[in-house]
Write a structure and sequence with these properties.
The chain has about 600 residues and is of the alpha/beta class. It has seven helices and 33 strands. The strands form eight sheets. Strands 21-22-23-24-25-28-30-31 form an eight-stranded parallel beta barrel, surrounded by five helices. A six-stranded antiparallel β-sheet has the order 3-2-4-9-6-7, with no helix packed on it. It has a four-stranded antiparallel β-sheet with strand order 1-10-5-8, with no helix packed on it. The protein starts with a helix and ends with a helix.
Amino acid sequence: MANKLLLFALLLAFAPSLNAQQTDLITNIEGRNTTSLNGQWQVIIDPYESGYYDYRYQPSNNGFFKNAKPRTKSELIEYDFDSSGSLQVPGDWNTQTDQLFFYEGTVWYKKSFDFQRKPNTRLFVYFGAANYFADVYLNGQKIGQHEGGFTPFNFEITNLVRDTGNFLIVKVDNKRRRDAVPTLMTDWWNYGGLTRDVKLIETPTTFVHDYLIQLQKGSRNRISGYVKLTGEKLNQTVTVRIPEAGISKSFATDAHGFAAIDFNADLKLWSPENPKLYDVMIEAETDQVRDQIGFRSIETRGTEILLNGRPIFLRGVCIHEEAPLRGGRAYSREDARTLLGWAKELGANFVRLAHYPHNEFMIREADRLGIMVWSEIPVYWTIQWENPATLENARNQLSEVIARDKNRAAVVVWSVANETPLSDARLLFLKNLISYARSLDPGRLLSAAMERHYINDTTQMIDDPLGEYLDVLGCNEYVGWYDGLPEKADRLEWRSKYQKPLVMSEFGGDALYGNHGDALTRWTEEYQESIYQHQIEMLKKISFLRGTSPWILMDFRSPRRPLPRIQDYWNRKGLVSNRGERKKAFYVLQTWYRELANTR
Ligand code: GCU
């Protein structure tokens, strides 16, 4: 055992150098010249992956990615995309047809398109997300693959695309694996498919590939970051302009197309009360990108969380990426507006987006609405801590979400884990993720939903060794649901080993909307209401509590919840039903949040 841990420690020691560079994700798709490939895609459902492997289970050179058609009456071709069914993209496959409701396996997607590329341009295909493993082909050629169901990726197709008759084929496999992230067991539905937008991005040959434009850590009037060009003409002058603030700053890029940017700026700061976003232009000689960026500082001091230098309480709620009203994986701006609108109605200034990166609309709407965001990667429950490939996968998901959202003022916390069991290997794994996140983005707070334990019948202790490496402590507790009855909270005291702020990142209980009874009858709105009443009194007594995000805003699907006529594969801990009906507990929390908004 000791040798294995030593070997793993050595591996981890060198891990940082494995891919220290940023992923080659193109930043800010919204501000680019794009063509949507959304809509109906032809699909082939392939549970035995016969479109990928031959009968000897060897990858075949003649798989479905060839999109072959019989050229003679005698030629044997045993598939045909164009006479097969179709699915809507973006969208999970599980809620589009009952046939695929429980399906976990491979589905092949095909999209045909024509594209006349302008001279002196490059072309990329961009996926907002594909759950879980995607093999991507264009015109019969493999252009890349991606692992992880909740982060974006793009591939260059400049030299492969033709004016007419292109066929983009994606093999999407959502089979769960022990070594994956997340691993086999989760309490959310494993929605499969091309779950977010698919776009073509046309850029100049040398373009603004990536940039970070945010306030320097701890500063409220100094912007620091970088601009990164990709292409042939890497030595250029790039200018960052914020017209409304009369700012125009130019920097020279080096031979790698990189320019560090650093300048004073007197700006209106972003906050929930005033979610100020500025139009920002990043201009190079060969390209320009426009973005909407808010500027705010976020830090901790002792047990305080400071937004723009002032102590703040995070009045939050957890949200799964479940589509409101229709169910299935949420993906649109409308979905985001509905969910965040309900959070606002609750009186929230904060949301914990569980347990994986949500779509970009969610983050951009939070930016616009003034809602702070806890963003998390799905290092959930019992990950394979000692598997270097699992670590690399988790690091990659972390770097992709940071690449996508690093310019969003709303995102204040990166969370690297949820409810992960104590062990040395786990701690090494998570420490690695934490230092990696800090290297990619020094400006935000790091957290995780950590372990806690009773030191006696009435005292909970937070001394998970992970706390040492975090800025904000996160804890999930279900006093009154998995742990005793609601009134148990009245007798509980909370202690922490750390002089750090605590966000109670989950608490709550299930209730079926419209199911009524006395406050001790499980599954009733009255029981859930009672949990919240007792919880809030307990939470008010915790001196280092600086935020709450109860579980959860809306009921969501889970394969672990089969109880007939109550759950029916829904986790019913929502304060709102999946049909948008507010449960009694919704108003208990709303009342408290209104009080807090007036006092803190
Ligand atoms: C856990 C977990 C959630 C889960 C919830 C529940 O704490 O983090 O993902 O859904 O509890 O049991 O409802």
